[in-house]
Design brief:
The chain is built from 29 helices and 19 strands. The strands form four sheets. Strands 12-11-10-13-14-15-16-17 form an eight-stranded mixed sheet, sandwiched between helices. A six-stranded mixed sheet has the order 1-2-3-4-6-9, sandwiched between helices. Strand 3 (49-54), helix 2 and strand 4 (90-95) form a beta-alpha-beta unit. It has three domains: 5-258, Alpha-Beta Complex (2-enoyl-CoA Hydratase, Chain A, domain 1); 289-474, Rossmann fold (3-Layer(aba) Sandwich); 508-595, N-(1-d-carboxylethyl)-l-norvaline Dehydrogenase, domain 2, CATH 1.10.1040.50. The two termini are 33 Å apart. With 698 residues, the chain is an alpha/beta fold. Helices cover 50% and strands 11% of the residues.
Length: 698
Amino acid sequence: MSDKVAYSRHGEIAVLRVQNPPVNALSQEVRAGLLEKLMQAEADEGVKAVVIVGEGRAFIAGADIKEFGKPPQEPWLPDVCNRIEASPLIVVASMHGVSLGGGLEVALSAHYRVAQPSARVGLPEVHLGLLPGAGGTQRLPRLTGAEKAIDVITTGRHIKAAAALELGIIDKVSEGDPEAVGLAYAQDLLDTGAERRPVSELPGPDPIDWDATYDAVLKKGRGQISPAQAVRAVQASAEMPFDEGLKAERKMFMDLMQTDQRQGMIHAFFSERAVSNLPELKGVEPRALQSIGVIGGGTMGAGIATACLLAGMNVVLIEMSDDAAAAAKERIAGNLSGALKRGKISQEKYDKLLGVALEVSQNYDSLKDVDLVIEAVFEDMGVKKEVFGKLDAVCKPGCVLASNTSYLDVDEIAASTSRPEDVIGLHFFSPAHVMKLLEVVVADKTATDVTATGFALGKALGKVCVRAGVCDGFIGNRILAHYRDALGHLVLDGASPFQIDSALVDFGLAMGPHAVSDLAGLDIGWATRKRKAPHRHPEERIPTYIDRLCEQGHFGQKTGEGYYIYEKGKRGGTPNPKIPELIKAEQEELGITPRDFSDEEIVRRYMCAMVNEAAKVVGEGIAKRPLDVDMVLLFGYGFPRYWGGPMKWADIQGLPKVLEWIRSYAEEDAWFWQPAPLLEKLVAEGRTFDDLNKEASA
């Protein structure tokens, strides 16, 4: 007998209470318990209705993640749902907290649904590379219609109770103890002579233009197949009898289970949860984080200040002049206005954040009581050392001194203070109040509780935090610099920037790398190339054609011209005709005869450069685990989630094949394509990057 589902009787009504803390996940014991207790209710003389309710903070939050990747055990969830729906008793689901995935599918198999006002429902399987596989794609459209069901399933979004009522997903919203609410609703149904109402017996949804919808969903998903496949499953609900639709849904579900995309998305799901779980921080108490200082009120500083304000912290922002201070406050006000418009904060909260929680000052003495200060000034070592010298003089003992540098040596910055143990890098990504990634850069002398404080701040701000060691560019920008160099070689050798962008968007990137450069500002890369020029290896190939454009004052979107031409009022850009001319001139200067590249080879070289440098980053200990690299690329650089990250992509291709590709490219350019020692070692031992992840978490 399962103790995960409790049975009790109240007159003519039996209650099946799911009790599998913390969120009543649908483990094998829960599935078996639901069947067992349902049959007990049906055998209990005089019982006419059943209420299914969850104990604790949720109805049923979905599948049990502890069972992911393990052989499935009976009873299967589709059989459980079909058996609930087939019960001769009236079955009511009384929902509170979240009812997600299989949890909502259980509720849909009940005959009636009542929910608390604060309840939320959803079918988020697409985020795991799947579609609902226990009748969700067949039952939901019978309640909502095809278009609304497709929106719910393909977005995987959470739907609040009021909206779910309007959609027809639930029948009633009622506040109170979930069991009492369920009992009252069931009793009312019995008193009014209501009959069983299986969703499977309702008519299928009206047809829509299925092919157009499929194409639109596939395009929106940038190549992710599970949302588009879900459209076909909903189509089955309209075109097939219910039982046949269930079989079609199940086949699509099982087919998706075998895909590379499902592997990638499961990896991303678990890695996102594992990335901040560092053994070195276990039991380490972070320092206080109520008052935050920010140096510099440009786009980055204003974004950081906004994020801290929205997290409930007081912020002191330092700027150099009255005009700069006013501009910084205006940027923060603009950011907060966005949160106000989206309903994230009230007008009262907006006024309080801007008028009370934020202080803008030109005096470093205003930072004397802050708990942590983040420097976000110009990316120049001399400027940063000057700032940290001032912070060292005014900040209280124990205040954490953080730099938002993207590339520079945090050890050198720390050495400019009398308290290097209090110094850390906190590399935010712009816009800082929107982007999810935070690289926590741990210097040689950074105290463990300072590292813990960096992670605590990131958690408070809702960030995905990744530990990084000190090197030029840390994890993300170091790898970025390398694969951008590989793209530069491709351009010199004959692939146009526009073909490269198109090939990589088809691979799954939100934007092509050259369009991204235009968005960020071409002057950033130009400055980096000039900074690195004196120390460049003689065999290093660095294209300079784009520098000619920068020298003319063209820096991308902000000036209207870069790789692409941007016109006011028009979305996106059109290829800049100057670019092929500049490339051709450099090819002639270098004596290069251009050749054609297929889109497949462009993607392969791009990915091999990324993986090879990432393997060096892990091998050197800059990233502790391959999954750290994956999370940086997913959350900071727009890498397609359905590949799981570059290291997971490499595992899926097979590391021997990846190494073979890299060695073949090394025949053309031995200096750039030096295989990472870690990659060679793993291939020699027949192991994968994921094996390293498992070892680190063991």
